[in-house]
Amino acid sequence: MTITITCFERSPDGGKGLARDTRVRWALEEAGQPYELRPVSFGAMKESAHLGLHPFGQIPTYEEDDLALFESGAIIFHIAEHHAGLLPNDPNARARAITWMFAAINTVEPTILELQTAKFAEGDKPWTKERLPLIKDRIRYRLNQLSARLGDADWLDGAFSAGDLMMVSVLLRLRLSGILDEFPKLAAYVARGEARPAYKRAFASQVVAPPTG
Ligand code: GTB
User: Fold this and answer.
1) Which domain holds residue 114?
2) CB of residue 9 inside a 6 A radius of ligand 1
3) Fewer CB within 10 A of the end CB, N or C, for the chain?
């Protein structure tokens, strides 16, 4: 059984590990599962071979024997369901950890994505200058709530789980904006995630293409 994950052949982040294959590789590293990486170019992502794996022409995808998955959340849930180390055994604690996975991608990540879209896809639009402070305030509102819930705990609900893996991965996308540093408890939480040996291995295993030109 070989697990194959697709990733950017040439990630726009130039090696910061911010694309969503990193969270999948982190989950596999936490679960102690070997995997192979298959870099895909932006062009190939939109061709029929890749569209057969991912209907939206994106990365990451996950292939294992005759199973092919897309959506980082579904992939990590699959890994966590099939291998020890990412979800607690107690049924209620397990349900809560899964809830945090959903909260990360459904409640926290969308606000952060708005910021990326405004900056990178709509940066030249006349409304962006006025819109950015509104988006940033919506992110701060969410982070304030999350920070209050985390309090002084190390992880969101007892031991580290796939819920934390997902939340830390989502928050990492904010680092460059400086907003994360406004929330010291969350900044420390993210740093705890990054300090995990499995995260370090996942970060080190990313494909970094040399600059073009
Ligand atoms: N909901 C899907 C999931 O969770 O798997 C979203 C997948 C997705 O957005 N994939 C992106 C992609 O393939 C890569 S991760 N984009 C190409 C396309 O749509 O054509 C998003 C991403 C891209 C770049 C950076 N970066 O440079 O910092 C960070 C994150």
Assistant:
1) 91-198
2) no
3) C
